[in-house]
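A favour, since you know our structure tokens better than I do. Go ahead and set the record down below.
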Amino acid sequence: MLQQKIRKFGLRWRALLALASVVPTASAQELATIPTNHWAYEYLQQLGLRQRLPGTMLLNLPLRYQQLAAVVDSIGPYAGNAAERFWLQKLRALHDASSAYPVLQIGSRVVESAGRMPGDDLRSRLAVRSRLGIFPDRRVALFNVINLDQTLGEDARYIGKRWRGFTGFTEQAYALLHFNKYLVKFGRDFLWWGRGRDATLLISDESRPVDHVLAQLNFSRARFTYVAAKLDRLPLADSSVARYNTDYADRYLAAGRAEFELRKNRLRIGISQLVVNGGPNRAFEWYYLNPFIFYHGEQLNDKQGGNIFGALDFIARPQAGLEFYGQLLIDDVQIEKRGRGDLEPNEIGYLLGIEKAVNAATLGLEYTRVTNRTYNTVREWEKFLHRNRPLAHFLGNDFDRWLMHANLYAGKQVQLYWTTEWLRRGQGRIDSTFDQPWKNSSLQQGYREKFPSGVVEKSWQFRLEARWHPRPGFFLAAHGQYGRYKNFANVSGMKENAAGFFVRLWWEKNWLIPLGD
């Protein structure tokens, strides 16, 4: 049985390898956005860390291919060693602005992982994304991506149809209009605010991309972004159905962000405010359409409720090859002590990191801490979730995490990656009931609780990957990992060891078809 599975994997992989070897990679059109899970951002970060050139402080994603091209052109003359030339060559091949307009783009991305995942049997998982874009001219883009994926159906949190081991949904579908400093986008697309190795405390790509309207104003040293989004509807409990005379609560997200480059190519900061609101029979509040309103003050005056966050993030590059970055997220901070409600512990999160480039290698260290009940709230429809997944960090709340990582360009189109992680995770979750034990204490007694809360799962994880990337649209990676857990799944005394090894294939291809004369 095992030999049959291996032969089946081998046939599929050989077919895809043969296809990748005979089909060259075409490039995408300049107005299309680059998905936040694309390898292009990793290579751009490596070049930006070393060169400190405009457009490489990645705090607000996704980028458009035209932005990537501008950065690549600026870096080109300075790429000195083999590693920088490798990253630059792969990025340069992604873009082609020479095609005549109007043009139709048809493409596909195939990602397959085969092997033994931690706690699982030997098997293969396939994800196929179809891509369709229409570009009438250099200012307008209409884009659609459909994702057929075997991995999502195995997630108990997944909301959607499962069919013969596959799940499918529209991952991107937007219309984009761009005029010099101005950009407007309507539809479904990725969002990522903040800087982190594999996660952010603000808005991330952990959940499915949200349906939104985005307006952006860009200057050479500043950027202003506003987003209004519709989140998934929340089914109500029977008691709430009777109370509100409806089966669902509608949910919305609004967010505004200002970025400033205080020292050119050396220090960039972002200031953000976000709110998740809604409820039974509640429409989107018009004042959240105003990007110049202070959300917290409006909420206090209107008394309609909403889960509001403020955030500050930054990237600092004091010298070429060295970067510091961080984020501070504030959900709720108690300043006064007038009543029992003021004993509520502060609900905040912060992330701090450093990266150092040494020739063809990069070393990094990152620490993240998110207190219990951050992203959570009393009202179910105000939790910072979309389709059962966090809108920000994939670990949610009630954890702290040390992450050490390194990567090395080893030559011959090969890169090596190493990651070690130490994690403490309490019992608090975003979808947990919002308990309020401090209300049982007096002001004289005060209230304190341990962090992380409850039975704490402690884990150590090690990951190693070797990636061969001979063509821009094709790479093959071997990935191994091992983890040890205490109080596994927050069960006292439960120990678990988990090991896995799998091979991942990435193949991407685009065709451009002129629609004009």
Remarks:
- The chain has six helices and 24 strands.
- Residues 1-28 have pLDDT under 50 and may be disordered.
- Residues 2-22 form the longest helix (21 residues).
